[in-house]
Amino acid sequence: MMKSDGCTCFFDGNWRPCCVGHDYDYSDGGSLKDKILADWKLAKCVAMKRAR
């Protein structure tokens, strides 16, 4: 079962859904490429929320 700590060590904002998704992606493990893609998805999600 996956657990999320939210947005630990991340600047303030309404990013929790982005961070939870990132935690979920990381919990699956995977290759370095998978982790880079998870980080990219986090950055894209935060950017989209900031644009609103």
Structural class: mainly alpha
Tally of DSSP helical segments: 2
Low-confidence stretches: none
Radius of gyration: 11 Å
Shape: globular
SSE sequence, one letter per element: HH
Major β-sheet, in short? none
Mean pLDDT: 85
How many strand units? 0
Approximate helicity band: 55-70%
| Beta-strand residue percentage | under 5%
Distance between the termini: 32 Å
Explained architecture:
With 52 residues, the chain is mainly alpha-helical. It has a domain at 16-51. The protein has helices at 16-27, 32-51. Helix 1 (16-27) packs antiparallel against helix 2. The longest helix is centred in the last third of the chain and has 20 residues, at 32-51. The radius of gyration is 11 Å and the shape is globular.
Short description:
This protein has helices at 16-27, 32-51. By secondary structure, the protein is mainly α. It starts with 15 loop residues before the first helix and ends with a helix.
Blueprint (SSEs and pairs):
Layout: H1 16-27, H2 32-51
Helix pairs in contact: 1-2
Task: Provide the descriptors you would attach to this structure in a database record.
52 residues, mainly alpha, 2 helices, 62% helix
